[in-house]
């Protein structure tokens, strides 16, 4: 071998070795423990996200057990499992969203994906009035209408006498999708009318979520999917056409409003798009661009349906699995609401102590969004007990709060009573560690809508229907994979409806 070919092979090897050693021993995060592969390459995360199919959280559990409260999970990324760190990461204004994740969503120029805090707060200021308590109280008839329709659909399975198991996983998501589309446009694609609650868009969204991580690593794919010609999408199986279908529904709504702005005034109720499309003083008289309106629609529909639907699904499973919980919940509801045909609204329901404990416990075990939501430090700062340099990606999945045995003893147990029998000190500890909606300036915009939907859905379902689990196993809703939202292992929630009380339309 002559000198040139030795150099040709040797130089890259020396550079690579130096780079690896630098990353492991000398760079700004070298003091933090973690697997050496994670210190060197983002491939470590790719492996758990994509190859292990949403397996990162299991790995994080293992790492924290081995290394303690902070671990290095990427060349420039730390993950914490310390409640103090959660407050620091998600409450401080000098951390911003990490773009790689948020740019991989089809939510262009939308509330959830804005990185620049000024853009985010401008959009929030514009949307906030639609998510205030008084707006949500006015929205109740719309929410109630969709719940009535859900119960009516459920009751037909009972009337037909065949007691066919109902897929509540899809039924709840159909109701929550119809609620949020109605609030956006005063129109829906009628997910609740689909046979078996299997509207192709919803089925597609459920299937699509498990391949979504790839977009984070190959962002060009999002562009390709968004711009795929119709003839190509038409060749795909029906459930893989959902993305095009959802975009078509959204763009026809937006274009309809743009062509005929009087449509906005003709809706029976205020709509989010009325708020967005009428030049608004809060947005300095600007109307968001069409791209931004599309992005916002996709964000609101996605964020508004699967989260609430997921909490209802997980809560219903646990309630039906625990006869004592089920009985106590129904007794409380019967006591305050003896005549089931009389109206029952959010403001009365939120005062019920057992129902409140059931909703909180459902939020705790369903989590909402399980991923470690990444933020970038804008300055050198203290996170938990650790010094973290500027421009580091930091995160903490909320599951490390919700499943922390020091805060919630026997954390895997669905136990609404923990919220009722706790000492005031423990209660405030639990409340201070329940953050399904995250916190700080980027916390959930739809939190008030979500609480309202959860109270109304749980109360109406459990007061007006008598249902039992069908084909459930001990292991359902115990383990999940992380696809931003949890995708649960085991059987999906199916119920058999034994009876419906009161009149249904
Ligand atoms: C139980 C139900 C819900 C849960 C657990 C939940 C949870 C969350 C969480 C954890 C975030 C922070 C995400 C991040 O930092 O990237 C978030 C953001 C957001 N959520 Fe929700 N959410 C729920 C329901 C809703 C509903 C009904 C809407 C209404 C459309 C909604 C709209 C949003 C929006 C627009 C954001 C982005 C806020 C921002 O980045 O400034 N969510 N949600």
UniProtKB/TrEMBL annotation:
Segments passing through the bilayer: 6-26
Transmembrane helix found in the keyword field: yes
Annotated GO CC locations: membrane
Localisation: Membrane
Cofactor: heme
Family of this protein: Belongs to the cytochrome P450 family.
Positions bound to heme: 444
Pathway it works in: Secondary metabolite biosynthesis; terpenoid biosynthesis
Gene Ontology molecular-function annotations: heme binding; iron ion binding; monooxygenase activity; oxidoreductase activity, acting on paired donors, with incorporation or reduction of molecular oxygen
SUPFAM superfamilies xref list: Cytochrome P450
Domain of life of the native organism: Eukaryota
UniProt-recorded name of the protein: Cytochrome P450
Pfam families the record matches: p450
Main localisation: membrane
Organism: Mycena maculata
